[in-house]
Request: fold
Amino acid sequence: MPTPIITDGSIGRVPQLPRVALPTNVHRYAERASRFESLANGHPMADYLRAMAQIARAQDAALPARAAAPIAAALLESSRQYGMPPLSAQSHERGAEWRADLRDIVAAVRRSAADGMQHTLARLGALADDALEALAERLIAGTTLDADAAFVPFIGAALQVYFSRLAAALIVADVERCDVATVCPVCATRPVASVLRIGPQNSLRYLHCALCETEWNMVRVMCSSCETDKGIAYLSVEQEGRSAAEALAKAETCSECKSYLKIFNQDKDAFVDPVADDLATLALDVLVDEQGFARSGPNLLFHPGSG
Reply:
């Protein structure tokens, strides 16, 4: 997992440190795969989580296969001057590298995938470039179709590799002035979840980008969607040996905008991964949805469906 160096200066904790942590951990996908495998043990969705582990292993192999393309100096200067994310996902002109990453991921998973998955991977592998780009556009925009569902984990995985590679090539000075707290300072994507970190940043909260894996600081007890500090509440489910109050995962809900985002406490489990743990706690999403709250950030490895 990333080792954030983000600090919430507003509460006086090491204010000299930058508030953004770029995804420079080259082992992040191997660590995520291990987390998926660990979470699968005894889990009702064990097969699904192990399949996600396969995808994360494939991401780990694809990440070093290509170098990040150069980022235009004008974009970086604009980001530094005006506080705008330099790689805004919805306007960034993706290079063909992401499709090469996708081919690598599909090929790696096919080597050990079950028969049912083989059919999906064969269909995905047969799609033309324009169809793949259309899928990517829908996933980034949050408008995927039910017909896309089987392809979403692979498209999302390839986009994560591509954008995180670009993000890791930046320096913090390129993005630390981006002041829209609710979106990633690198690619303007919503967070998949937030994490209360341990270590030097003990109990500070970091939002984790669903796309490029960047993390950025946001004060606690504040809605990560509308930035209000009113009407914030936490929902959780009891787990074996742990009460709801002591849960690793909670849903931070906002009565003002009726949204929620999960928050994970690393103090409860040092190996928590925001993407993997999010998928392992889908039961919590069901609970919160029944309470009338809508999720504010995506998990790009999962298509929620329209039902």
Q: What stands out?
A: Residues 26-174 form a domain with the FdhE-like fold fold (CATH 3.90.1670.10). The radius of gyration is 19 Å. Strands lie at 20-21, 191-196, 205-209, 215-217, 232-235, 249-254, 259-265, 294-295. The chain is about 35% helix and 10% strand.
